């Protein structure tokens, strides 16, 4: 995860009125009104007391009381005039470290204030605007800043919710020594903190049903069937003369060679079901947030293993977009690719769609390799669509999140929900189509489920990976190509096939 800092610099903010602002009558009146509106509660109280004392002195004929009233009125007005004519120029800088953090982690915001004017400042109150989900609004009091001097302060922010949060603009408040008047100036610049999903390191296992372009071996893709690609090309210096294709040479009148077989890069597509009706609940511990975090973990893991990956949602939208060949897992590109995918997952939300058909149509575009899907509730029709997504002979792994398990019911023991019987049948439907299916229960960690998806199980299985569960003991299946043993409701274990899912690279 990138952890570098980010700097945002605002233009110098001038305190008081510049000469240009006092040039016109209307602008000058506006500046005076703005200064008077900066009177604090203390300043307004002094002004009201002075007016009252002056009125009473006039009515009662008390000259001493009149002098007290005039003093009370003059003090806040003098403070306003002095503060209004003050010409401080202050530059503010903000730096985020890091600018991209996983949910639940802290980021530190560094603020620097530079006095670029020739005069020392008075008492400054520094305040940065932050969304409430990041914590309380930070406030700092800066004592006198000498000419050319600077002050550095910092604060921490933290959010359990994904998203992009604006920080700023930075506000500076200038006040007089008596606390009668307070003027506020804001900088125009702001920065953005990106809170991405939490990711977990996954074990290098081999999920069931190894497909073309996927696995530990150096698999090759040929343009035509056979050992060599028979489409010839012109001879280039350094080509092996043993690959000269004499028939094409005679036809074209120049030396032609057979093309070398081309290596095929291992590919992986991660499908994220974002349908609003497929998940129940909200918040950082909801089923949807688990699915988003799981998709982020798989994408990062596959990129680290050297795969070419893409992210696909139920709406058919993919990252990279249509026509893209996926993000490469090359060492020099992996970090940037992970950052782009995490930025996208930071803002992904529920879709209004109720159908998985757009995702099915996108998968028919020919992006082969491993398919890892994070699915919510499926009815019979959507389960049928999902079952057809698995390419023939390809690898498909599904993590099913049943809302019945993630939503506590009033009659559930200990406040926990019970799995629905329909979810078991949907899982069986996917397995019969060749999927490796893992049921996800609340509180389970993805690394253990990822290992479960890649290993063959022969013992009892419970939804969510336990040894037993609400369905009772069930016989496992060796994989999509092996004999199936089912439980009383048709639920079966998620197991590996004869060749298995690989965390390796081609």
UniProtKB/TrEMBL annotation:
It comes from Streptomyces tremellae. Residues 1-29, 457-506 are annotated as: Disordered. Residues 462-488, 497-506 have a biased composition (Gly residues). This is DUF58 domain-containing protein. It holds the Pfam family DUF58. Residues 233-364 form the DUF58 domain.
């Amino acid at each position: 995860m990138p952890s570098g800092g980010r700097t945002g610099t605002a233009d110098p903010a001038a305190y008081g009125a510049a000469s240009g602002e006092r040039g016109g009558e209307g602008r000058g009146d506006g500046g005076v009104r703005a200064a008077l509106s900066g009177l604090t509660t203390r300043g307004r109280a002094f002004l009201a007391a002075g007016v009252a004392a002056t009125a009473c002195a006039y009515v009662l004929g008390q000259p001493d009381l009149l002098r007290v009233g005039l003093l009370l009125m003059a003090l806040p007005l003098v403070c306003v005039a002095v503060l209004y004519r003050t010409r401080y120029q202050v530059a503010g800088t903000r730096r985020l470290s890091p600018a991209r953090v996983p949910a639940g982690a802290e980021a530190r915001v560094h603020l620097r204030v530079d006095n670029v004017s020739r005069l020392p400042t008075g008492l400054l109150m520094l305040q940065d605007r932050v969304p409430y989900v990041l914590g309380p609004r930070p406030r700092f009091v800066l004592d006198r800043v000498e000419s050319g001097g600077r002050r550095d302060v910092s604060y921490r922010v933290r959010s359990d919710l994904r998203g992009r949060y604006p920080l700023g603009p930075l506000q500076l408040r200038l006040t007089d020594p008596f606390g009668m008047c307070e003027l506020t100036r804001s900088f125009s610049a702001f920065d953005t903190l990106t809170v991405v999903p939490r990711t977990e390191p996954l074990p290098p296992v081999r999920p069931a049903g190894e497909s073309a372009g996927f696995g530990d071996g150096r698999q090759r893709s040929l343009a035509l069937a056979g050992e060599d690609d028979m489409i010839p090309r012109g001879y280039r210096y350094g080509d092996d003369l043993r690959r000269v294709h004499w028939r094409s040479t005679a036809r074209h009148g120049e030396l032609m060679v057979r093309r070398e077989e081309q290596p095929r890069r291992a590919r992986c597509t991660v499908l994220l079901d974002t349908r609003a009706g497929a998940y129940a609940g909200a918040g950082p511990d909801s089923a949807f947030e688990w699915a988003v975090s799981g998709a982020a973990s798989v994408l990062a893991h596959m990129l680290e293993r050297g795969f070419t990956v893409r992210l696909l949602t139920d709406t058919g939208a993919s990252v990279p977009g249509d026509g893209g060949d996926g993000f490469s897992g090359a060492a020099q590109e992996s970090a940037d690719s992970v950052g782009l995918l995490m930025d996208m997952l930071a803002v992904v939300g529920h879709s209004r769609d109720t159908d998985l058909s757009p995702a099915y149509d996108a998968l028919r575009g020919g992006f082969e390799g491993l398919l890892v899907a994070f699915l919510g509730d499926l009815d019979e029709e959507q389960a049928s669509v999902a079952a057809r997504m698995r390419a023939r002979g390809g690898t498909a792994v599904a993590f099913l999140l049943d809302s019945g398990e993630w939503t506590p019911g009033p009659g559930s023991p200990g406040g926990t929900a019970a799995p629905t019987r329909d979810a078991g049948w949907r899982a069986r439907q996917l397995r019969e189509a060749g999927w490796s299916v893992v049921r996800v229960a609340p509180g389970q960690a993805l690394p253990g489920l990822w290992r479960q998806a890649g290993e063959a199980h022969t013992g009892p299985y419970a939804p969510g990976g336990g040894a037993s569960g609400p369905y009772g003991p069930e016989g496992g299946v060796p994989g999509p190509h092996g004999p199936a043993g089912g439980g009383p409701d048709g639920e079966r274990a998620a197991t590996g096939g004869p060749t298995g899912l690989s965390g390796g690279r081609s």
